[in-house]
Structure formats: structure tokens, C-alpha cells
Design a protein that fits this description.
Helix content is about 40%, strand content about 20%. It is of the alpha/beta class. The strands form three sheets. A five-stranded parallel β-sheet has the order 2-1-5-8-9, with helices on both faces. Strands 3-4 form a two-stranded antiparallel sheet. Strands 6-7 form a two-stranded antiparallel ribbon. A hairpin with a 2-residue loop joins strand 3 and strand 4. It is globular, with a radius of gyration of 18 Å. The two termini are about 15 Å apart.
Length: about 220
């Protein structure tokens, strides 16, 4: 069975978060269209995301092996196991929906901490030779990422590459791991009033079907 991993990055409850409200609408619509998918949810403000320490790694982005892990204190063993679990969970999915607000031209810090956990040598990337650029391993089957970002202002398309540093970074990271399909669903212009926020949400929701279509997910044929 194929899996959609829904990752949220906002401490607000869903009904107060523009990105999470649109994210939920997207996931619900996707499952209506593709009921063969299961949904797994990961709230980065509720889930423990380990801080990466040097003793957890054999080398750059390469987690220590099981025997080396057993030599660590019990608390640190649990941290290494959690990093591995987060990475394995990410690898197991086929579609990823990430809902996050724009903060300081980027995104909330838990998302960066999470990305650092899932970029691992011989799991999501590998280096052909020492000093070479990493090659992604997640091109083994069709995968797709939908990044849902809310922001207070309406950002002109000409300056989006300059101001949307966070979304550009996430796209680059996903492609470096081998996921070439990346779609953006922007909830721009949430403004300062509830009326502006609700209008921005509704405008973003109108784009959901078009983005699902772009993902080119093949519907399961029942026989």
C-alpha cells in the first residue's frame, strides 16, 4: 500500500494555522482521489527531533552502526534509534506533504532539524567517491513532494526566489535525495485580519485539484 507522509511545522492548532488548514484540505482531497493511500502524520512541534551530536555519526551524514550504538549511554542510544526511525519513516513514503509558515524568509527551525535527520549516507544519499557530490537514492520509485507555505504578504513572482529562501532550500534538498517532483502551494496574503486570512485560505484551496493533477499519480485499477 502506498503512503502519504503529512508533515506539519507550526505550533498553532490547525484551525488557527493557515498552512495546516490548507494542508488538511489537501490531504483530505488527495485521499478522496486516491483511497489506496494510507496517511501517516508527523507534527514536528510534538515529535521529538534529536539534536545531532558528533558521536552519533561514523562520518558526514553516516549514522553509527548497531555495535557502536550499543557503546553509547542509554539516552544517546535512544537518540540514534530515533534518528534512524525518522529516516526510515521518510523513505517508506511515496508522497510528502509539508505544511509550514514562512518565518524570517525561511521556515521554523524544527524542519531544519528534521531534514538533518533524514539526509543520511547509504539511506537517502550516497557519495560515489570521496569528495564527490552526493547522489540521491530516493529515485527508486515515483515520489512527490507538495510544500504548502503560508505568508502574510502577497509576494510578487519576480522576487519569490529572493524572498522564498526556505522553499527554495527544501526543494533543493528533496531533489538532492532523488525526489524530482516538487510542487508548491502558496497561501500568500494571510494579512492581519481574520477576513484576509480566510480569503487567502480559500484562494489556496482552489489550487488543490490542479496540484494533485500535476503530481501525475496513477490511480489504482480495481479488478
Amino acid at each position: 500500500m502506498r503512503k502519504l507522509l503529512y508533515i506539519t511545522v507550526n505550533s498553532k492548532p490547525e484551525n488557527s494555522s493557515s498552512s495546516k488548514t490548507v494542508g488538511r484540505a489537501f490531504v483530505n482531497r488527495f485521499i478522496e482521489r486516491f483511497p489506496e493511500f494510507t496517511v501517516e502524520e508527523l507534527d514536528l512541534y510534538k515529535e521529538h527531533i534529536p539534536r545531532l551530536e558528533y558521536q552519533y555519526f561514523e562520518s558526514r551524514n553516516c549514522i553509527i552502526n548497531e555495535e557502536a550504538c550499543k557503546k553509547l549511554p542509554e539516552k544517546e542510544q535512544r537518540e540514534v534509534q530515533k534518528i534512524t526511525e525518522l529516516c526510515d519513516q521518510f523513505i517508506s513514503a511515496d508522497v510528502y506533504v509539508i505544511a509550514a509558515p514562512m518565518w524570517s524568509l525561511s521556515f521554523p527551525s524544527p524542519l531544519k532539524e528534521y531534514i538533518d535527520c533524514i539526509v543520511q549516507v547509504n539511506k537517502t544519499i550516497y557519495f560515489p567517491e570521496k569528495g564527490d557530490k552526493p547522489i540521491g537514492l530516493l529515485n527508486d520509485r515515483p515520489r512527490a513532494v507538495v510544500y504548502i507555505q503560508s505568508s502574510g504578504a502577497n509576494i510578487p513572482w519576480m522576487v519569490r526566489p529572493i524572498l522564498n529562501k526556505g522553499i527554495e532550500y527544501v526543494e533543493d534538498i528533496m531533489k538532492s535525495m532523488g525526489i524530482s517532483k516538487f510542487e508548491r502551494l502558496l497561501v500568500d496574503g494571510t494579512g492581519t485580519t481574520e477576513e484576509e486570512r480566510l480569503a487567502a485560505i480559500e484562494k489556496a484551496k482552489e489550487k488543490i485539484d490542479g496540484i494533485i493533477q500535476k503530481l501525475d499519480i496513477k490511480e489504482k485499477i480495481l479488478v
